[in-house]
Write a structure and sequence with these properties.
Number of strands: 0
Mean pLDDT: 78
Largest sheet: none
Order of helices and strands: HHHHH
Number of domains: 1
Strand content: under 5%
Structural class: mainly alpha
Shape: elongated
Distance between the termini: 44 Å
């Protein structure tokens, strides 16, 4: 199951989530506060050794702000980490002539 399918499974409006631009229609003070909050959450994430990068953390926070269940999101993150990464396609070589 890919990431968008898992968001659909969580009942998330993926078109809305994927189209929301961070900081859109935000006054400078609100943007500064949001940035500081993300910095603090990222610092805590690093202390807890979650392995989440800043972008992923900001997406997860935005999804929580939209009303998704944080425990369900955590389960999706764990599942995505369990799934093997798709391996690159093997190069094919034409059969050699004898």
């Amino acid at each position: 199951m890919d990431e968008v399918s898992k968001l659909d499974w969580l009942g998330c409006n993926t078109q809305h989530v994927l189209s929301v631009a961070p900081g859109a229609d935000m006054d400078p003070e609100a943007a500064r506060t949001a940035r500081e909050s993300l910095d603090l959450a990222f610092h805590m994430s690093n202390i807890l050794d979650t392995g989440l990068d800043r972008h992923t953390l900001s997406v997860l926070i935005a999804l929580c702000d939209l009303g998704l269940n944080p425990e369900a999101l955590a389960a999706v993150v764990k599942e995505l980490r369990r799934e093997p990464s798709p391996s690159p396609p093997m190069p094919t070589t034409p059969p050699s002539a004898p």
